[in-house]
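Friendly challenge for the regulars: who can give me the structure tokens for this chain first? No prize, just bragging rights.
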Amino acid sequence: MEDNKLFSYMISKDGDDYQVNKEALSVYIKNLKKEIQAEEQFLEISRQKIEKDRKTLNQLETLLKSIS
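First reply, four minutes later:
Bragging rights claimed.
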């Protein structure tokens, strides 16, 4: 975690005594987990598309060789 992200969840009552804003940090963590899950789903869909496209490419190359 970058330092500036951590500081954005810090609050100060008197200018010297900093505390972590636990509620805001919890919301950020929850949203980050959702974002990671969405990215993982996107990667899985992309992986499946690549496999399908690779299969199609192989079939087309085989077809081209058979008609040459």
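The first strand starts at residue 10 and ends at 12. The first helix runs from residue 3 to 7. Your move, everyone else.
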